[in-house]
Amino acid sequence: MKNKNLIGLILCGSLFIAGFMLHGNLSLYFNISGLFIVCGGTICATLISFRVEQLHIVSKVLQAAYKKPIKKETEIINILIDLSIRSRIEGVLSLQNQENETTILFLRRALGCLVDGYSIDQIRDILNTEMYFFRLRREDSERVVRAIADYFPAFGIMGSVVGLITMLGGIGDTSIILQAIPIALTSTLYGLLFANFFFLPFAATIKERTNQELLLQKIILEGVIAISSELNPIILKTKLESFLTPSQRATELVSYSKIKDRFNIEKQKEAEEQAET
Fold this sequence. Notes:
Layout: H1 2-21, H2 32-49, H3 52-67, H4 73-90, H5 95-99, H6 105-115, H7 120-169, H8 174-228, H9 233-240, H10 256-263, H11 265-276
Helix pairs in contact: 2-7, 2-8, 3-7, 3-8, 4-8, 4-9, 6-8, 7-8
C-alpha cells in the first residue's frame, strides 16, 4: 500500500508541476522574498501558539504514520484466538510469556491486566480510559497540524499585501513595480500550496491512522475480555469477525436451505396452510 501511495504521489506531483510549466518557465514561480514571508511568518506563529514539546510529539506522530506499518485487523484477531486457545489449555498465567513478545503496546497492557488477575469490569475500565486519552492526544496533534495549515494562506495574503504596498510606493518607477509583482502573486500561491499540498494531507493522515488504531484497540479490548471470561475460541472468532468487512471474513455465510431446516420454515408454512383450510 505504501508503494502504491508513493507511485501515486510521484505521478500526481509530476502532473502538478507540469501544469506550471505548460505556460511559462518554472523559475517564474519561485520568489525568495515571498517564500521568506510565508514560511517565516508561519513558523513564528506556530512557535507562539504551541509548545516545542508538543511540536516534537506531532513530528513523531507523523513519522510513525508514514514509516511504521500498522497491523491488519485479521492479524490481531488471529493473535487473540491463539491466546484464547493457549489460555484454555495452559491457563491464563501462560500468557505472561506472550506479554513480553508482542510489539503492540496496547495489547501488552491488556495482557498485563489479564495476567495480573484484574476483573472484567476493571479491564474494561482501564482499557477504555487508555483508548479515550489516546484519541484525545491524537486529536490534539491533528489540531496542531490543521492550525499550521490555516496559518499558511493567511501569511500568503500578508505577503501579497506587502507586494501591493511596494507597488503603490513605486508608482512611476517601472523597476520597483516589476520587483513587487512577483511577491504579491507568489506569496498567495505559496500559502495555498503548503496548506493544501502538505499540511492538510498530514492532518488527514493522522486522523485515518488514529481511526485504524482505535479499531484495533477495540478488537483487542473485546478479545481480552472474552479470554478473561473463558469464551470458546470458535465463538470468539465469530464475534471478532464482526469488526471486519464481509470481504475480509474467512467464514462463509450459512445457506438459506440450512436456515429453513434449522427453523422448520417449510413445515411451519404447511401447518399454517392446513390450519387455514
